[in-house]
Fold this protein.
Amino acid sequence: MTYLVGPGRANEHEEPHLVAGDGMLMAWHGDTELGRDSALAIARHLDKPRSLYETEVNGGHVWHASLSLRADEAQLSDEQWGQIASEFVHEMGFDDHEGTKAPCRWVAVRHGVSKNGNDHIHIAVNLVREDGTKAAIHNDYHRAQQVVRELEKRHGLQELESVRQERATRGYDPAEREAQARARARARHERERSSGEAKMPAWEALSGTDRRAKIAAELRTDQPRYFLALRVRGAAAASQDEGEFVRRMRRNGLLVRPRFADGRTDVVTGYSVAARPSYGERPIWYGGGQLGRDLALPRLRAEWPDTPTGAADAAKEWEAAYRGRRAVAPGRETQEIDPETWELQSQELLATVQQLEQVPVEDRETWVRVAKHSSGVLAAWSNATEQTPGHLAVAAEALSRSAQTYRQPQREPRVNMQAFAGTAMVVASAARGGQGIVAQVTMMKTMLRLSQSIYNANVADRQAQQAKMILDDTRYRLAAVRERLERVPVPTPAAQQAPAADLSGASEKALAARAHYLAGQGTPVSAALSSPVPNPLPPKRHRNEPTPHADRGVER
């Protein structure tokens, strides 16, 4: 209470006062600006049941929450905030529960907007009821979010979707970022020192200022989780079973580490991945669930068929990855896809998109699945064709946010989701040739049409922020890809049948010139050793990111 009525950490608190709470407190302090003395008096009143009955509550008897609006929303009146606070406390079960329980003492304080401009209130509750019993707070985080989502609808406020649709690439903990940056800075320093190019002191001998400067420089680089989520999501989307998923991750240049059941090497319960580190650095491992809820192994397994030999075959691939051995049974991931397959898969995807246009936009489970698989298709395409994450990667990441849910969808989808898996498999082979520009353009147009349907579903579900992100980060990016693909000349039969040139002994400059020439002749863009998606934006690439072909060392 003394903090709530004090100046605040940034001196942002103004005119602290009550907007709702215990009836006696509102009678005493409802019309006055609060100071330290009144805050202490309120605290003593709130605390009296616990003091009287000497009831102990594990974790503490004070329950606190803040209810906040977006900075761009209009501020509410004290009466509106008081009504919202009372309804929140009632829905959380802290009142008398319509006469069936003794109430908790509580108060709601308003002290102006936050330093970021958010209108908000604070609610403090004594979890010891008037009769000395304890209020139930089991699963209170989840219940509180459900309550405020309902309050947003009831009072016409902007609805927050980020609770249900948390970023697939989750936020970075400051301590995690600093630990990674420190490890990279030290490894880089020792590497430069051992090269002998200049006399440099050991890391431990550097001054604190010098070490902090090197760490700060590393903090300005991208974190690896974005890159890892992109690689894993693309591999999962393109795979028809768990074993293929393991092999595709390894081909994408990732270090893969399974988590075995206790005392077993044939039962895998989870996995971790890491980018291949530079010399002197240690790999930084992330579990699948840390990259995104949709990338946890149980959720991935729900999308693959359960066959009698599937689990055993997958366990062999996991063990091979764990021991650094070659893949046990290479499969589709090594095959080239011919133009006819591209055409057939494009037609199947188009048919699925047409079916989806008949699915009600209110069917959230279906649209969550669609967003997940669409993101996987774009991630697989990016992995195959973008040497540094570009338009396709950004579009995939934006779509993946619609696929994040606390609970796994239970109902069977209304359309055939296998079309997405087949599409991901096809586009994942783009770097190995075999596809035509026309087929890629057709596929991209279908993905644009699909993104419009996902956008409509988010609008109908009142997910305004996510809908805007799909419009800005997905449709804009895919349209840019389509335009660049359409500018690539279609290959002529003569160009397709031209004999391969002898490039032995050619210089790097000559190879680059030939690649440029082939692109101009309509040869598949991946054959020109560059991405079909020239990215005008600063590339989001981690310093240790392997190129799409730097994966062979995984299986040595």
User: Anything to note?
Assistant: The CA atoms of residues 22 and 220 lie 49 Å apart.
